[in-house]
Amino acid sequence: LLGQILDHWFESEPLKATLATDAVIGAMASPHTPGSGYVLLHHVMGELEGRRGAWGYVAGGMGALSQAIAQAATARGAHIFAEKTVCHVLLGTGGEAQGVVLQDGTEVRSKLVLSNASPQITFLELVPQEQLPKDFVQRIQQVDTCSPVTKINVAVDRLPSFLAAPNARDGQPLPHHQCSIHLNCEDTRLLHQAFTEAAHGHPSSRPMIELCIPSALDPGLAPPGCHVVSLFTQYTPSMLAGGRSWDEQARNAYADTVFDCIEDYAPGFKASVIGRDILTPPDLERIFGLPGGNIFHGGMSLDQLYFARPAPSYSGYRSPIPGLYLCGSGAHPGGGVMGAAGHNAAQVAIEDFRHL
Predict the structure, then answer these.
(1) Checking CA distances to 179, which of 106, 167, 329, 352 falls within 20 to 30 Å?
(2) How many other CB atoms are there within 10 angstroms of residue 107's CB atom?
(3) Could you tell me if 334 and 231 lie in one domain?
(4) Domain tally for the chain?
(5) Same domain, 107 and 202
């Protein structure tokens, strides 16, 4: 249990609760849920430029990372077709992958196919079910994709000024503006209460908020004096109590709750807002293809990790379809902007390609 780990190492409740946020991030779980300790480990096990557990912003926004990968690929001769929806994987007479068919009917022939889509989309939508073992299909259908995350992107006309550390007179970013700011996590009990509300179908009345201001480090993201604020919030159920869906009213009501909380820490925040973009779990699924809105393509619980990700006997990136590989967050070792799944899948695919 995460609580036992934190109690062993720390005394300060606000510190324990802040660290606990990384143990429940992206997970419909409480700090008291068994297995939550691994999620914390997953978020701090890496390193950045020799600093263990460090995280970094991508200059130019997260899209700049995708562009850098794309440029490296095209420099080596790759052809990239964006906004071309794949309908299904082409299979040969022996059941092996031979390419993909696009929504417009175009066939792209290939000896190997690597899918960065979720296991659910890859195996339940792009491949004929009769070509897959029944127990494998059942396992993919049963993967827990429940997600508590609502992402809110905000444009503001001035830097938030927090009561705990007011802004300087010149309005320039201070060190804390350049970090991840955690709100509503003074006590692990607050996190547990927020989780419990969502477990009963109600958006948290005092949600966990992770607030970042990327423009404090990368001014080019916003006009002079203005900023972009990224809010990673929990907990919001995919389906609201009573079977209600996330309509515009529900979406705005939850965002208002989040903004009211931020206002308590940084008076004047609400008045500074120019625009906001609210992405609930169903929005994240619809727009980005994240099953259940889950940023990891599936929960990072112990029964869905290591040899069991995405299914027992298929954690080595190969799938029941020869020549079809899984290389996204649904593969080992799971989610996060680290490229481990893609790197490992590429090594396996290259090894197999040599024998074709």
Answers:
(1) 329
(2) 11
(3) no
(4) 2
(5) no
CB-based contacts of 138, cutoff 8 Å, min separation 6: none
What is the Cα–Cα distance from 262 to 81, expressed in whole angstroms?
41
- CA torsion sign for 206, 210, 216, 220 is negative
Positions of E strands within 235-339:
273-279, 324-326
Domain ranges, residue 109: 83-144+296-354
What does DSSP assign to residue 173? P
**Tens of pLDDT, residue by residue, the chain (356 residues):** 677 888 889 999 999 998 888 888 888 888 888 877 778 777 777 777 888 877 788 888 889 999 999 999 999 999 999 899 999 999 999 999 999 999 999 999 999 999 999 999 999 999 999 999 999 999 999 999 999 999 999 999 999 999 999 998 888 999 999 999 999 999 999 999 999 999 999 999 999 999 999 999 999 999 999 999 999 999 999 999 999 999 999 999 999 999 999 999 999 999 999 999 999 999 999 999 999 999 999 998 888 999 999 999 999 999 999 999 999 999 999 988 888 999 999 999 999 999 88
If asked whether residues 325 and 200 sit together in one domain, one would say: no
User: Max CA-CA distance within the chain?
Assistant: 71
- Is 31 part of any domain? no
Question: In this structure, what DSSP letter does residue 58 have?
Answer: P
What six digits make up the tokens of 11?
């005394």
Q: Which two three-digit tokens encode residue 98?
A: 């031979």
Regarding pTM above 0.85, the answer is: yes
Domain boundary among 288, 317, 345: 288
Domain assignment present for residue 266? The answer is yes
Bridge-based pairing of strands 227-234 and 150-156 is antiparallel
DSSP 165: B
Pull the structure tokens for residue 125. 């939508």
Residue 294 to residue 286: CA distance in whole angstroms: 11
Task: Tell me whether residue 9 is in a domain.
Answer: no
How many Cβ atoms sit within 10 Å of the Cβ of residue 50? 6
